[in-house]
Amino acid sequence: MENVGIYVHVPFCRQKCRYCDFPSWAGLGEAETGRYFEAVCLEIKAFAAEQGRVPAGTVYFGGGTPSYVAADYIGRVMDCIRECFELPEEAIEATIEANPGTLTDAKCRAYRNMGLNRVSMGLQTTSDRGLKALGRIHTYADFKTSLDLLGSAGFENISADLMFGLPGQTLEDVRQDIDRLTALASIKHISCYSLKIEEGTAFDTLYRQGKLLLPDEALERQMQHTIIDGLAENGFEQYEISNFARKGWESRHNSLYWVMKPYVGFGLGAASYYKEERRTNVMDMEDYCALVTQGKAPVLETHILDAQEKKGDFMFLGLRRMCGVDDADYRELFGSSFFEDFEEIENLVKAGLLTREDQVIRLTPKGQDLANQVFVAFV
Questions:
Q1: How far apart are CA 64 and CA 11, in angstroms?
Q2: CA distance 349 to 38
Q3: Is 125 helix (H, G, I), strand (E, B) or coil?
């Protein structure tokens, strides 16, 4: 049986960031936290009771801010995962998202002792001015202190999140971010995202009021190219549109999503792709805990992909990777050629958005800039 990836959502944080629309809350008490993690373990056990002890190769705690809650809660879930899944302890990639300002020496050592071996740090920018604008709880100095704590606890695999297109951000700010991050030997992986104004967030309100000064589209594009070029010059290979790594430090868990490998999600709003079915859990805390406690699946929606949907997902997810998609892999899965199934490919190549090398197609630099125009051709 094929290894799955396991995702666990931790919807707690110290303070809600001004741009965040993820299902997460600040200020919930110990009783609510305890009840939630009990429900997560019940959901995991229910999956195992139905599917058996499925082999898993990666575990990922996302949020929210998983490092905000007591390490014991994370440990309980890891114990439950070991009980319910077959884990290759020596080869597993087990990640926890963490924010500077929430880590302590005791937490970091507890994470290592429970088997976590990768940390994804929510930095966003090295500018304290930029961090304050985003509503982050930390400074760049806090980030470096957290790196020291993680290093002392034995963590070698550390990733950092970086955002661009921030309010008041300049091209020089972006260059500073790249220079500072690439100078840190402990950072092996960097995920880069442009700021998106999501409905219902604090930034959305400010934007509608005309009070949010953002870089224009041309400057944001220039920032993106500066990041790509700057990371490449400093030994970080772009292996996916938003992800860069030193050689050998690519994220195994995230890579599952782009090659349509199975993953199972537990917790509030968690998504799964298992046995060709996509599933999303409910987003309401009370609904989630009540359903799981009653022995019911906490599912908001399910969808079984038909043949055409699987083909389309294979294409647009695979094209996120810099290595592109190979028609030989497509033929093996679907028994046909994507050159025959998607006539749009020829037009995308002519438009300079895709490049073709024998049986492999990839995004061009122009295609990366206009990726959504490419992807929509396969949906």
A1: 5
A2: 51
A3: coil
Can you list the residues of the chain whose pLDDT is less than 50? Answer: none
pLDDT for res 283: 94
Buried b (16+ CB within 10 A) or exposed e, 153-189: bebebbbbbbbbbbbebeeebbebbbebbbeeebbbb
Residue type, 347: N
pTM of the model: 0.94
The reply to whether omega before 135 is within 30° of 0 (cis) is no
Domains located in the chain, CATH noted? 4-258 (3.20.20.70), 307-378 (1.10.10.920)
Q: For residue 7, give the 3-state DSSP assignment.
A: strand
Residue 363 exposed, middle or buried by CB count within 10 Å (0-12, 13-18, 19+): buried
Asked if residue 47 lies in contact with residue 77, where contact means CB atoms within 8 angstroms, the answer is no
Measured CA to CA, the distance from residue 340 to residue 344 in angstroms comes to 10
pLDDT of residue 197: 76
Q: What are the residues whose beta carbons fall under 8 Å from the beta carbon of 246, sequence distance 6 or more? A: 188, 189, 235, 236, 237
Per-residue model confidence as pLDDT tens digits over 236-265 = 999 999 999 999 999 999 999 999 999 999
Token pair 């550390």 is found at 158
Which residue, chain included where needed, has tokens 């070029």? 229
3-state secondary structure 263-305: EEEECCCCEEEECCEEEEECCCHHHHHHHHHCCCCCEEEEEEC
* Residue 61 near residue 74 (C-beta atoms within 8 A): yes
- C-alpha angle with apex 319: 318 to 322, nearest 5 degrees? 100
Q: Closest Cα partner for 69 from 23, 117, 114, 34?
A: 34
Query: Which region, left, alpha or beta, applies to residue 200 given φ > 0 means left and ψ of -120 to 50 means alpha?
Result: left
- Closest C-alpha to 167, from 220, 233, 116: 220
Identify the three-state secondary structure at position 320: coil
At residue 84, what is the residue type?
C
**pLDDT tens readout for residues 11-42:** 998 776 665 666 665 666 677 899 999 999 99
What DSSP element (H or E) covers 161? strand 157-164
How many whole angstroms separate alpha carbon 277 and alpha carbon 306?
Answer: 10
